[in-house]
Amino acid sequence: MTVEAYLTWEPSQELRHEYVNGEVVAMTGGTLPHNDIALNLYTLLRPYLKQQGYRGNVADAKVKIMARIYRYPDLVVSCDQRDILAVDAIQHPSLVVEVLSPGTEALDRGKKFEEYRTLPSLQEYGLIDSTAMTVEIYRRGEGRLWLYYPYQTGDLISFDSIGVSCPIEQIYEGVVLPII
Prior knowledge:
Largest sheet: 6 strands, mixed
Shape: globular
Order of helices and strands: HEEHEEEEHEHEEEEEH
Distance between the termini: 41 Å
Number of strands: 12
Mean pLDDT: 94
Strand content: 25-35%
Strand order of the largest sheet: 3-6-7-8-9-10
Number of helices: 5
Structural class: alpha+beta
């Protein structure tokens, strides 16, 4: 499928589909903890984003990574004015967050992170576990270096790219984590 055909076809579909080099991939449904975590984070960030004039989206916002790659992160924030009026896709994100599920973790940590790193605007990539209270943030360093910041129970998470910090417990508020 061509990019043009995908962009015309996909909005009329019942399910969301990512587009990777001509292949259309249906998105899987998330769990309740997955959804609760994404909504909690967006709820925490939204007042600040609105005040700063930044754009934040959850789940149903495509990110154009390259001419032939479109992904749907769980949360995306753009501080770039070119994205404020975007209709089809965010193109200049500062922060991308994926909530990890057992079925998507390898893709989120591997291929998606590799793709997202090609975006010059991206400053942070967050991975939030949906089965345990752990968050990982990768921050852009010098050149191709990405710095790793792990967080766990009791920690204050810092999203430096947008100037926001919050206790990890707020992201997991009301979330029922599976017993492992």
